[in-house]
Amino acid sequence: MSKFTKELINDYADKLLIGLTKEETDTIFNEFEIIEANMDLINKIDGISDVEPQHYPFIIKSVPRNGDKIINENIEDILKNSGKVSDREIEVPKVVG
Amino acid sequence: MELIPVIGLEMHAEMKSNTKVFSPAKNSYNDISNLNVNKIDMAFPGILPLLNKECIEKAIEMALILKCDIPEIFMFDRKNYYYPDLPKGYQITQFNKPIGTNGVLTIDVDGIEKNIDILDIHLEEDSASLDHYSYFSLIDYNRAGVPLLETVTSPCMHSSKEAVAFLDTMKYIFRYTGISDADIKRGQIRCDVNVSMMEKDSKELGTKVEVKNVNNINNVEKTIEYEIKRQTELILNGKKDEIVQETRRYDEATETTITMRSKIDAIDYKYFVEPNIPPYEITSDLINDIKSRISILPNEKKLKYINELGLNIIDANNLIKNKDVSEYFDNLINLGCDIKSSVNWVLNQISDYTNSNNISINELYLTPDKLKFIIDQTILDKISSKQAKELFNKSLELQKDPKILIKELGMEQINDIDTIKDIIVNILDSNLDQIKLYKNGKTNMFDYFVGQVMKETKGKANPVLVKEILSSELDNK
Amino acid sequence: MLEELHKKLISGEITSKELLEQSLKKSKEIQKEYNPYVTICEDTKETEVNDNILSGIPYVAKDNLSTKDILTTASSNTLNNYVPFFDATVISKLKDVGACLIGKSAMDELGMGATGTTSHTGIVKNPWDKTRITAGSSSGSACLVATGVVPYALGSDTGDSIRKPAAYCGIVGYKPTYGVISRFGLFPFASSLDHVGVLTRSVKDAAIVVDNVKGKDELDMTSIDLNVNLTKSLTGNITGKRLFYIENLIDLKNYKNPSNELTSIITEFKNTLNKLEELGANVTGINIDDNLLQALFPSYLCISCAEATSNDSNLTGIIFGPRGEGDNYVDMIKNHRTKGFSSLIKRRFVIGSYVLQKENQEKYFLNAKRVRRLITEKMNNLFKEYDVMIMPASGKIAPKIENSNDVISGNEQVLENLMVIGNFGGYPSITIPNGFVENMPIGINITGNILDDANILNISYALEQSMNYKYQIAKEVE
């Protein structure tokens, strides 16, 4: 049985700052049993927990940037797409807490 | 019932570097908002983090100073949460493979040494800053992406005094090594403080309360004191249950702490490996290279001054107070200067001069090699200490090499025995009464004759030779 | 195609301006019929023809590639007004050689989606049959190449987002080894799986384009050099090349009720294997553990959705994108995201969030990454013995638009999503046309070892020479 509930779905969506319509919640709820069953195929492989997780496609050598070169952007460029700008800054409703 | 406070700290320090940790924007405080910003700092779609080598090396340096285990590779992780000061919606930090683990820092608490266990030290990025107004807030991204070094201690401290001593020592190291300016006024040091109360002789820790984002060392002290008082009172009044595992914040106005969120509301940050930064391999070559560049820490240096150079504690302490000063001194010693003279010059004449002119020792015209000349002249008795001071002052005043100046000032000594002897004979011949006094036991007349010779030669006669010849001439009288 | 166009431009038989005008004219016609564009750059100017083969020739870029001063939306309402101030590396490289960008192609929103039906600008239709999907997410790019509007288009590929639409539209889709084309400026779907690649109508054209945009980029730490001239390595000689296919997925006995489509596709596939043998290659069937194969798609779902929830957390409407309404920042962001994302995206995000929860990470997210290791280790071992893997690009022809959301299971599911192997291991992978089933194009996929791009291209080049689908343009079936 799926331990998935509609409340849980809404909670996950809420934490991602997404609202779901009732239909959307229902759709996810209905398909989740299939998805979960599907995902459980991952756990059917013998000895899976002994394998080291692979985070990258293959080993890539990390070559950090020499930190000397400075690149600052133009103020016009960085602000031009924002819906609300005040002088040199981006404005949002008052942030509390 | 005796209660013991148990305190752990997470100290965030903004690192000093040319550019930010994951972007090439300038890393520098600026009053003009959104000046030091790269597209990476604002998470425009399609940007990728670009790791800064300078930050890695400084982080490794700090990990080495704290005697941490350094992993062979380190990786970055994403800490996911939404807040207007976090453009990407996640902070790049180190969760699984921090740059250092399992370290220790020895601190001095009222003359008693104490080891503070370091659980881990890791590199991460700072958030943007929010300026709050009546009805809105403004976002300034200058700080977004500034490198932060977070040091996490075990809950091993038992008083605010120990916590402050730890933070002061860390601050000192940061400044001394140049890893961070640790500028309190600019909020470069911020702490999360964990406090719980444990019953004496009990092995069970009390309920842990975390106070987040305390922004300077004084406030850390007040936070701890307040929490100790608050928790102690609750326990003694039988309200132990009211101490809950929660996150609080320090309120500067009331000097108290206030509940932010309880454990049930704790945020799940959904950490996972940052896929855009490949694992970074820390080779032993790199570690050795960084080790060789690590400035010896003040305490180690102090011991070296006392044990190897034979300095007294006061002088040693004075020398290590400032990194540049001690390095200047080290250079003098490395150049082969007399130790005692070097100490005197650095702590007296140089210190006076730099203080009164408000310059750093690195700006001094007399670099160690130039000062060495002056020191050597006095050691070889080629000039008197008075002349040496004059040479020092003139050299600084005229910005002229003492090697040239010594000739221009006519300070070169008379070392010719016959010349000195002639002068002495002349002086003795015209001071017969004084010779009589000397012969009758007034031995301080010897200095009078020396003075006369020096007056005659404008101080250029080699004092050692003068004394030798004078004494034999007087014997012959 | 590109070579011929270049010759014509050099000789003056045609000018860049004429080429551009033709493309723009056709763009408008095709847009009306199939809806492949987010933006047609009508004001674009012809470019100067120089020695570079791509100079003066029009192309299209998927709308998740950042283009300076050109609207870039990733087909999402969260970005429906976003005009970047910088070019993706792949775009600036093409600009540098004088290529001419004429438009931005529609895609499944933010790259998440396999149908081409979830763009904020509507459904992209298959140019061979308007009632069918193109597949996605590089749906618009596939459509525009298949209809001959442009000789090539840029795409991106996280699971099979270039290679599946290429198969359904009867063209070539190639994603090089991970990192060979910089991801700087690509709006991410799942960073550890995302590739930039190209859609063309011939293998050689694919090689030519990638030769011009490949290479280590200081703006992408995961980018790498591929020190081979791909175009020059197309010899057509594949004598002695060793290919393998996964026998247990090709054996119809392993399917409960194989559809006619699947049966025909496998027949075509086997014919092609024979052709390869005739060309001098050795083809071997091998078996891979069914449990591992079954776990591939769920693992892909876990990893890609998880990375996507995080990658798309910058879509808050604060710095860019339409501002949401609300008295506080939470409501404001929530309003932006709720209005901006389609239902499909929201579903994927909920999955991503679920598998990343502290209590679920081990079981889902990390186990998925363990599956990722098992399959790449398996493939790496196979690539020690064989040059490349060859498989059908799909077990189906392009589905009808209304059937595009069918939930599938069993071996059909495995075959349908097998190309994710190329993303798990970052392997170079190419799909080329392999004929027709029920008058719809089908594709064949060749995947090789990392940085062995020349090998997969040369084998597909040889195969292409032996078939008649090179340069084919979609002819709508009635």
Major β-sheet of chain C, in short?
11 strands, mixed
How many separate structural domains of chain B? 3
What is the radius of gyration of chain C? 21 Å
User: What is the terminal separation of chain B in angstroms?
Assistant: 90 Å
Record the strand order, biggest sheet of chain B: 5-6-9-1-10-11-12-13
Largest interface: A-C, 55 and 74 residues
Q: What low-confidence regions of chain C span 5 or more consecutive residues with pLDDT below 50?
A: none
Index terms:
heterotrimer, A: 97 residues, mainly alpha, two-stranded antiparallel sheet, 3 helices, 2 strands, 7% strand, B: 477 residues, alpha+beta, Arc Repressor Mutant, subunit A, 8-stranded mixed β-sheet, 3-stranded antiparallel β-sheet, 15 helices, 15 strands, 40% helix, 20% strand, elongated
Quick overview of this protein structure:
The complex is a heterotrimer of chains A (about 100), B (about 475) and C (about 475). Chain B is an alpha+beta fold and about 475 residues long.
What does this structure look like?
The complex is a heterotrimer of chains A (about 100), B (about 475) and C (about 475). Chain A has 3 helices and 2 strands, in the order αααββ. Chain A is mainly alpha-helical and about 100 residues long. Chain A has a domain at about 1-50. In chain A, strands 1-2 form a two-stranded antiparallel sheet. In chain A, a hairpin with a 2-residue loop joins strand 1 (about 85) and strand 2 (about 90-95). The mean pLDDT of chain A is about 90. By secondary structure, chain B is an alpha+beta fold. Chain B folds into 3 domains: about 5-280, no CATH class; about 295-410, no CATH class; about 415-475, Arc Repressor Mutant, subunit A. The N and C termini of chain B lie far apart (about 90 Å). In chain B, about 40% of the residues are buried. Chain C has a domain at about 1-240 and about 430-465: Amidase signature (AS) enzymes (Alpha-Beta Complex), CATH 3.90.1300.10. Chain C is built from 15 helices and 13 strands. In chain C, the strands form 2 sheets. Chain C has an 11-stranded mixed sheet with strand order 1-3-2-6-8-7-12-13-11-9-10, sandwiched between helices. A two-stranded antiparallel ribbon of chain C has the order 4-5. Chain C starts with a helix and ends in a 13-residue tail after the last helix. The model of chain C has no long low-confidence stretch (mean pLDDT about 95). Chains in contact: A-B, A-C, B-C. Strand 2 (about 90-95) of chain A pairs antiparallel with strand 8 of chain B, so a sheet runs across the interface.
